[in-house]
Amino acid sequence: MAELPGGEASPRDPQAYARLLKDVREAVLSGVPSPRSPRSIVSASWNRSLAAQVDPDTGVAPLVYDSGELSGLRDEHPLAPVLPILRQTLVSIADDAEHMMIVTDAAGHILWREGAAGVLRRADGVMLAEGTRWSEDVIGTNAMGTTLATGEPVQIYSAEHLVRTYHGWTCAAAPVRDPETGALLGSIDVSGPLRTVHPAMLALVTAAAQLAEGQLRARLAMRDVRLRNRGPSRRPRLALKFLTDGPPSTTVDGREVPFTLRHAEILTLLALHPGGLTAERLALLLYGESGNPVTVRAEIHRLRTQLGTEIVQTRPYRLSAEVDADFLRVRAALKRGDVTGAANAFRGPLLAESESPAIREERESVTASVRRVVLGSRDASALWSYWETACGADDVEIVDALCRVLPDGDPRRAVAFTHRARLNH
């Protein structure tokens, strides 16, 4: 049985070709003899899509991100810098041909969509919209999802889309890779109604993807030149005072920076994980099992705006600064057995108002560790330092230890005995 033409879908009679594809799809899905075999790339995609339990008759692309969430994703995405050149290359052509340009991330989420107004309105009706996900496993065979699945440019026409809803569309897409790492960054797609199909569509998006990769490569080269010309440079200094009975503080190179409790929690976790955290891992640490990576991405976007993109890096999320954090100093002092250093750096509980699971765990661990080594040291200064914090003020064991170790004539001894008497009553 002959296979339908490979490579790109470029029928001379679009309507007749669409009818043939419909017959082929119905036959394949029904398990009856087909008038022709589908293209091999389409057949393989159908098999993957059906294995993922995509419904061929009623499937619809899910909305994953709303407009507010998209803003942060776009700003952070590595394809954002090449969007202007993609507009120059594709959008004017798409307007003239009643098509639209689409750019997705590597997971198939539509981040940008631009083109002819009439086509955009029609696309809205079938959820071919920004914030929706078009990976094969959720919406079946389509140019964006299939090019991401295969890593190759592909054109999908009419009933080659597994889901019936999209049989009135034709689309061509090509993958874009990171020129430095080879990792898949996303896809570039041109989509439109059946009547607008053109044999040059696939070549056009392939050329646009190559142009985008060339721009990314040029940006890398410029970055390397700047780094060589700059030579060794000082990183900004990020100071975190989060062990306190009062309000915590954050400074960048000595400048006080306003921040929210959530941002303080994120900074704490990033400081504790210098190798970096994914959005998923950070969401779990911040919120527990109910954590949503989308919320984390939005918070990171706001934090980067507040502190500067040179301090909070992405992919993975990490701090690129000289970090001076009191909780890290306590950890280091405990590790080297420096009781005095740990006691002096510990000025209160870690972010006392935080309900984040990971912060609570770290807070309890740091407090318990400092208390244990201070009690074991029988060092009057270390005990007094701990007693002055909210954690030690009403700790009977700490006060009793002070009463035992403070020598006669030490003015602190009378204070300790008075406080112990008050606690006993």
UniProtKB/TrEMBL annotation:
Domain of life: Bacteria
Pfam family, one: GAF
Residue ranges that the Swiss-Prot or TrEMBL entry lists as coiled coil: none
InterPro entries xref list: GAF (IPR003018), GAF-like_dom_sf (IPR029016), OmpR/PhoB-type_DNA-bd (IPR001867), WH-like_DNA-bd_sf (IPR036388)
Keyword Transcription regulation annotated: yes
Keywords of this entry: DNA-binding, Transcription, Transcription regulation
SMART domains: Trans_reg_C
Span of domain OmpR/PhoB-type: 254-319
Name of the protein described by the UniProt record: Transcriptional regulator
Species whose genome carries this gene: Amycolatopsis oliviviridis
Lineage: Bacteria, Bacillati, Actinomycetota, Actinomycetes, Pseudonocardiales
